[in-house]
Structure formats: structure tokens, C-alpha cells
């Protein structure tokens, strides 16, 4: 089974192809081009044909609303036209799931002037919140490019599309139906 996963949540764009549970392609671009301009051109350049996939996956945030909406609309349209399932993932949850740090831990991302976070403790993963200066207990994790200087662990790179693609592949393999294309929206904070 093959799955195409994209992440348009920030100024960088990343795309992954998951085949039989393994990442066969990871593409990353930090471009000045807009997501709507980049997506069709990039798929063509990489010789990616939507009809060659069994399912699709994308980030619903957190991130910048406009590129998220463009990515969501683009992949919803492809999923609808090909009649294939679409799975979603949320970036903070991926950081908490896949960064090997013991709980409690806090994933942080900067969206404009706001720091958005999510906490994982022994009870599970909590809700998405906006940081207002309150103390955070646990190991804090952020992307270095997001300039969250107080974070304990600064990641130079985190391939959201790859980890989201692997998580979505497991859902596809388990027979989950995918999301309702007509009610899918980005995470609004």
C-alpha cells in the first residue's frame, strides 16, 4: 500500500511517500513560493501521480491558517476525485509521540507571535493551548527555527509529513475509513 503525506503548516513544505509501512521518499523545501503555486508543480516535478496512491494524509495544524487551508483544500480535492481515503495528523501530537523523551514533556511551536503547546504526561496527551507565560513542567521540545529559546530540546528538523504519514499508514492498514472530506478544517487556536 502507498500513501502520500503533505505538510503545509509553516513556510517550509514537506512531503513524504510511505510504501508498505516504510518511508520511501521525503522531500523538504523552504521556499518563498506560496503553497498553491508549489503543490501542483512539485507533484509534477517529483513524478507523483495521485492515482498511484491508496490513501492520502496531511497536517491540520497547528500552523499558519492560509497555507494549512490551501494544503487541506488541495488534498481534499484529490481524495474526492480519486475516491481514496484521507487521514489527518496534528503537529504537536506528532512531536510528543515521536521525540524520544520521557513524560512529562511539552511540544511547542510558534505561530506568528504566539507559542502554541501541548503536554504529554502519564495520563496521556492534553489539549492544544496558547502559552501565556505559565510555568511548564517537563521537558520542552521546539523547532530551532521557531526561536523558542527556553526550550530544553531544540530540533533542527522534524519531518511532520513523514511521521504523520507513518501514523496514517497504520490507520489505513487497520481499516479506518479516513476523515469526512466535507467537514475537515484546520486546527484553529
From TrEMBL:
Gene3D superfamilies: 3.30.420.40. Residues 36-99 form the Gcp-like domain. It holds the Pfam family TsaD. It comes from the Bacteria. InterPro entries: ATPase_NBD (IPR043129), Gcp-like_dom (IPR000905). This is Glycoprotein endopeptidase. It comes from Thermocrinis ruber.
Amino acid at each position: 500500500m502507498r500513501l502520500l503525506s503533505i505538510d503545509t503548516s509553516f513556510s517550509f513544505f514537506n512531503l513524504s511517500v510511505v510504501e508498505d509501512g516504510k518511508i520511501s521518499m521525503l522531500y523538504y523545501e523552504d521556499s518563498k513560493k506560496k503553497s498553491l503555486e508549489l503543490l501542483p508543480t512539485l507533484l509534477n516535478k517529483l513524478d507523483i501521480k495521485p492515482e498511484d496512491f491508496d490513501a492520502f494524509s496531511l497536517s491540520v495544524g497547528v500552523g499558519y491558517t492560509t497555507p494549512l487551508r490551501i494544503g487541506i483544500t488541495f488534498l481534499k480535492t484529490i481524495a474526492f476525485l480519486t475516491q481514496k481515503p484521507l487521514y489527518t495528523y496534528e503537529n504537536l501530537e506528532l512531536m510528543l509521540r515521536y521525540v524520544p523523551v520521557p513524560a512529562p514533556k511539552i511540544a511547542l511551536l510558534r505561530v506568528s507571535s504566539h507559542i502554541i503547546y501541548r503536554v504529554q504526561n502519564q495520563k496521556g496527551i492534553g489539549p492544544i493551548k496558547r502559552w501565556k507565560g505559565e510555568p511548564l513542567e517537563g521537558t520542552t521540545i521546539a523547532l530551532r527555527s521557531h526561536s523558542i529559546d527556553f526550550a530544553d530540546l531544540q530540533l533542527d528538523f522534524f519531518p511532520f509529513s513523514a511521521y504523520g504519514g507513518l501514523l496514517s499508514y497504520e490507520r489505513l492498514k487497520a481499516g479506518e475509513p479516513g476523515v469526512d472530506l466535507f467537514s475537515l478544517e484546520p486546527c484553529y487556536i
